[in-house]
Amino acid sequence: LLDGGDCDLVLGVSFDETTGLRQQVLFTEEMVFTCRKGHPQVRRRISLDTYLRLRHVVISLRGGPQGSVDALLMAQGRRREVALLVPHFLAGLKIVERSDLVITAPRRLVEQHSAGLQAMKPPLEIPGFTVRQVWHERMHSDPAHLWLRKQFFEVTAGLRGGRVRRSGSGRR
């Protein structure tokens, strides 16, 4: 869409280094294990065995029963108990807040949207993700496009720890 001019700017998490496209990091996020406060099987920390036994909500945009956590577990010859698939993290967090199900979710989302939840470091190393804005090279110097990119960059400054860098920049 960017190549064809049908789209001016894309925000997302998974982009290849492609000729003709520029990208700029907006922020990075970590994943946390999350359950409702007072969950009967969870204290301040949990073991991997406990994590695997708990009933998980998994985010699945395409309806598949496995997420990125499941791929990590499969590489170790392990699997977790998947109880429910939902298409969005907010729906998953609301379900977890009112049940004994658990979820692995982005830290900021948990902190901002669910006061009834507790978040902790998962018992296995789960990579976070980086959100970027991506645009085609031909738009790089366009004044309106520069303004738009600057708005996204400034709005997300607090998510980078408050450091504001030059907004018109972007690496290939």
Question: Helical proportion?
Answer: 25-40%
Mean pLDDT: 87
Strand percentage lies at 25-35%
Low-confidence parts lasting 5 or more residues at pLDDT below 50? 162-169
Broad shape: elongated
Q: Helical region count?
A: 5
Rounded to the nearest angstrom, the distance between the terminal CA atoms is 17 Å
List the strand order in the largest sheet.
5-4-6-3-7
Radius of gyration: 19 Å
E-strand count: 8
What can you tell me about this protein's structure?
It contains five helices and eight strands. It is of the alpha/beta class. Strand 4, helix 2 and strand 5 form a beta-alpha-beta unit. The chain is elongated and about 55 Å long. It starts with 9 loop residues before the first strand and ends in a 17-residue tail after the last helix. 19% of the residues are buried.
How are the secondary structure elements laid out?
Blueprint: E1 10-12, E2 21-29, E3 31-36, H1 48-53, E4 55-59, H2 68-75, E5 81-86, H3 89-97, E6 102-106, H4 107-113, E7 117-120, E8 129-136, H5 143-155
Parallel strand pairs: 4-5, 4-6
Antiparallel strand pairs: 1-8, 2-8, 3-6, 3-7
Please provide a brief summary of the model.
It is built from five helices and eight strands.
